[in-house]
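Summary for the steering committee. One of the milestones for this cycle was to obtain a three-dimensional model of the protein with protoporphyrin IX containing FE bound, which we needed before selecting residues for the alanine scan. The sequence and ligand used are listed below.
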Amino acid sequence: MSLQASRIDATYTTLLQSIFVTFLAASIWSLFRRNRKASIPLISQLPGPPSQSWLKGNHEQLFGLTDGWEFHETLAEKYGPAVQIKGFFGSKQFYTFDPQAMHHILVKHVFSFTPIRTGGTLLFGNGLLNMSGEQHRKQRKMLNPVFSIAHMRSMMPIFYDVVDQLETALSQRVHSGPTEIDLLSWMTRTALELIGQSGFGYSFDNMVDDVPKHRYSIVIKELMPSLARLSIARTSIFPLVIKFIPTRIRTFLMNITPWKTLHEVRDMVNYMHELSVHVYQEKKHALEQGDEVVAMQIGRGKDLLSILIKDNMVADSEDKLNEDEIIAQMSTFIFAAMDTTSNGLSRILHLLAMHPDVQDKMRREILEARNRHQRERFSYDELVALPYLDAVCRETLRLHPPVTSLIRKSDEDTVIPVSHPVQGKDGNSEITEIFVPKSTAVVVSLLNANRSLELWGPDALEWKPERWLSPLPESITDSRIPAIYAYLMTFSGGSRACIGFKFSQLEMKVVLSMLVEKFNFSLAPKKSIFWQMSLISSPVVDGGDGHSQLPLIVELA
Ligand code: HEM
């Protein structure tokens, strides 16, 4: 054999050996993974409540208007932080408030879990709430700075102007003595006006009329009930239609479908979109005319939209958002900001009415600070430095998060770890991670995370603002809970966490500091208030007609 032939032979043998070794390693790895996968506990091995029916599973209990609270409490008490619940048609769902599992779902693998939304892109276009992956990252990059503390500070005058109008409206209604007022309605008007003026430099409401007259205020109130009437078509048929049928054919089909509610929703969505386009065009036009013109507008150029348009103009081309994306943020912000904040604020007012001692203490703190600073309007720093006001806000957002659960769908097979071993439903096994197959619904309970006895201590279910005036227990500070704010899951965590949480905090503090100083709030006789659980929890009168309201007695303090 020639030297060259034997070299070729040796190379050939080495190549074959390498292929064999690689193949062997891959087979062992795949066998190991398969065995590991097979040995990872499944959702069905987790403890959980019995299903109400094969068709609906635990769905109605999970979002039950009246019994939802009890159901969530039972889940935490009886089954712990990693639970098996049932969805439609016997499907298995994973319910959790375990810190490590939440970290996996909301932070580490955030884009492998798609949010299941009420209206999705149909309602709010390509706004932040509906984006995922790279597109979401790009929008967040442009929008995060818009919500900076510096911008919140510069919005203070707009906040005060709106709340001044609220204060005047309430004063006029109580000048002749204690009067029953539906404060939810006023908090909703205030929240819409605040996001209108400081979000887009646009006024929706003069805050004078008994009921708001602007069509947007009416539409935004009617939208959710109308969507609810679209029922199962909204969650099961519409996503498929959006995915597979082009927009033009979709619109044609929608127009010829003889369904009144569908047409009403179409008209509302079109109207909201047209208004957003109109506001955007006006803002852009004003910005082109220069700072002097902008300064004369409602937002004085300090509103979120003006800041976003200006930032977007000078952004690198790969970071720039297109016009549709900017316009879509307007409905997104209104939807995300209005009912969350107004119900949060209403909850605080309700609790203050139930606890006059807390209300008095808060009023004393505000009056003392007013004397100390000798000014009609607190500066940003003075306002956020009021400890008791802060404690009342935090404690209410802890015990009563307006959004109680987040619902996600897993986009791939995944293994979710938990912080502490969970006892399997057989009573013997200790589960430290759970195999969650692709397309499984995952429910993150913000409510139970905030109320966990293990994390917050034995008094976790009590409303105690004082807990925030001394150091929190190590069980919560060391828990590695993935919260964006004060160890509370109220605003979620990770890169999809609430972008408006500072805005909302500020809004609450401006409203409370002005109202509690001026007015006294007490419970209306013979009207017991019940908070119903839905997408965003809201108050109703027990035994009433079921419409959301918060009647309280208001009088000058
Ligand atoms: C008490 C008031 C509020 C609460 C409890 C709240 C709660 C939340 C929660 C839990 C999320 C996460 C939703 C999810 O991942 O499925 C979220 C997201 C969001 N919130 Fe808030 N929010 C409040 C106020 C606001 C305000 C005032 C704004 C705007 C000015 C706002 C804008 C948004 C936006 C745009 C998102 C989507 C963020 C993203 O996907 O990147 N929120 N909010």
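Key point for the committee: Residues 45 and 424 are 6 Å apart (CA to CA).
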